[in-house]
Amino acid sequence: MANYPTQRLRRLRYNPVVRDMVQETKLDKSDFIYPLFVVEGDNIKKEIKSMPGVFQLSIDKLVEECKELVELGIRSIILFGIPAHKDEVGSEAYNENGIIQRAIRAIKGNVEGMLVITDVCLCEYTSHGHCGVLNGEEILNDETVSLLAKEAISHAEAGADMIAPSDMMDGRIASIRKALDYKGFTHIPIMSYAVKYASGFYGPFRDAAESTPAFGDRRSHQMDIANIEEAIREAESDIQEGADIILVKPALAYLDVIKTLKDRYPVPMAAYQVSGEYSMIKAGAQLGWIDEERVMVESLTSIKRAGAKMILTYFAKDMAKYLDKTRK
Ligand code: PBG
Fold first, then answer.
1. Are 172 and 202 contacting, i.e. CB atoms less than 8 angstroms apart?
2. Is the CB of 254 under 6 A from ligand 1?
3. CATH number of the CATH domain containing 283
4. pLDDT digits (tens, 9 = 90+) for 256-280
5. Residue range(s) defining the domain that contains residue 227
6. In principle, which of 60, 93, 184, 271 could form an S-S bond with 125, CB 3.0–4.6 Å?
7. In a mutational test of the pocket of ligand 1, which residue from 54, 121, 147, 248 has the highest number of ligand atoms less than 8 Å from its CB?
């Protein structure tokens, strides 16, 4: 490589057309998966206080929202259900007429061209807010895994296009794959939350999904924020168990993890820009301390640059509008 003065890196930065030409990472509408929260009732669109611009929606409003999304060019969503009734074993999670199952059917019946991914976990459905079946204060792994497989099947039966287990129990990908295949859903991909840290960034989500644990925390199953070797082992075991896509969560504080896994495994990768990441940007912008649009684009670009082609983000709609505005 030449050195200065022959080499001048600024040469490619003067002209905006050239800048655009040499831009290495470009965000595209197909990168984004929009998380949506569905609640019981009619005509409900309730903003989540800690997440401006994000709403709990009843099924009728959810269908409207999906139509708007398709119109904007956002073609995939991930659904979270908040049932009216919660119990010890989260039975609404695998009820064929549960909130999610009805929501999936409503979208599939009324919105053309929307890919529906479902979050598979029990924490939104259990009265104690934990991600599985309890014995005292302990989450039982294998008992929980059987329920998760049941939940995944009921989502697929309702018409889900992709299953995204977010619980972090051991062995759940193998069990869910086996259960789906046995029921004839061999074509349904699994996007595994393979590497999910026990993060403080999930705070606002727990308001949105009403899933704050009644006691304790999630450290007996979610990963220690300090670990990356463990992330490699988690990703590897999920890939071996049959995950089609692996996901890292949160995103911005774990770009090294995304990059490491991308370099190591030739598997499509996703990252979840979680609620706290969104809320911090919104709050900073509301205070006038940062420019929301720039920081939105910058954070999402960094996630894609690190190696995650798919990004679950509450900014999906804003990004679609931004891309319409800026791309000719
Ligand atoms: C669990 C789940 C959580 C999130 C997605 N799936 C919460 C948790 O693990 O406590 C968090 C997403 C976010 O913060 O935006 N079902």
1. no
2. no
3. 3.20.20.70
4. 999 999 999 999 999 999 999 999 9
5. 26-326
6. 93
7. 121
